[in-house]
Amino acid sequence: MNPFASRERGKGEVRTILPGFFNPPPPPPSLSAQAPGAPNVAHVPQRGRNRSTRAVSSSRPTMDATVDGRVPPDDPARTATSAPPNCPHRPQEPHHPQPHQQQWNLTTDNAHASLPGAIQRKSRSNDRSKERAEPGATLEPADHYGDDGGGPRGRGSSDKLVVHLIIGFRDICVFTLVLPLGTLFVCFVSAYVFQPEEIHETHCRVYNIIPSISAITGVSPQRYLWRVSIALHIGPRFIIAFVYRNWYRAMAAGLNDPARVSKACRMINIVYWLNLVEISALCGVTYISNKENYPLHEKVFIIFMTTSLSYMLATLKLLKILQPDGPQTPNEESSLRYKQAFFALSIASTVGLILFFLKHRFLCQDLAFSWFALCEYIVASANMGFHCTTMLDFPTEHFLIAKNAKQYKKQQTSLGWKVD
Description:
mainly alpha; two-stranded antiparallel sheet; two-stranded antiparallel ribbon; 10 helices; globular; transmembrane helix; transmembrane; PGAP2; CWH43_N
């Protein structure tokens, strides 16, 4: 009689049936053993409709198997029972599995892995169900969100940093440069081509070839385009001012000299407020046109020029205090060199701007206003270049909008984020 084996569905437990008995009750935990010289036989059910059995002989001479498939150690005190004489061991006929059947070696920590030489057939669905049921493996759906709506719910979700937006700080700096510079170029070309009489008109009625920035941005429709670009430009400028203040404070915290630290903190506040006043003056000179209110426009422009040059000078002085040994990285060295060059260019252009403005205002010389306008363009370009050295100061930083970011906020600063 061929041996049979049965498996209880869902439990993954194999019951071995000894040859010569048909479905006997499960043996007691003590054990049912084989003869010392008889080969071990492990019976495994197959997938598919034909649930026949297959016996695989082991080369190990003796082995006892319990009902749950585990192999106890050899006990010489126990005597193994041999198979009945009326049922001699006969070799199994070769079995050819169906094409859709596959053999799976038992590689997990199943109880039947202790049967040497045993080849078992295992269902893929059983493998997957056991993997899902492994202790300690908790899988949560990625699209399941907590009640607070802040992100996927799970362990530690209340303290997890959830990023909603991330923008490179270098990209923000490029945007703040390209937007006003490109808008200024469009306003110049369009006004010079389509409205030459309006932009060249002055109180002296003299010949000019280069219009001023106030002239090309004071006519319609260029004034609307310029105001929109400055409105988009101002927001990132304020953010950059806050970031610079915290960056300078982090650098001052690394100084060892208390006197130098105190001096650096005073300069940091001066630089910070000069930057804010400069940005506010830029707003005023943009939205108060020279054609609408020339006296107020002129005064706001003077404030802008004064605070702009003062901010550049104070920044260079502050960097000298914070870096007593000079720049430490190539980016810092390039940034300092460009700042010094743009500041020198701004000083020279401002001197020429004042000189030619006085010639135009009091002497009404030809082309004096054109030279004044040229110096004004150079001053504006140098100012943009000085502020764009931010790309060298923060080459890898990013601007984040995130949830649970309080832990990264400095305790001693307001409107400032931790910069390491």
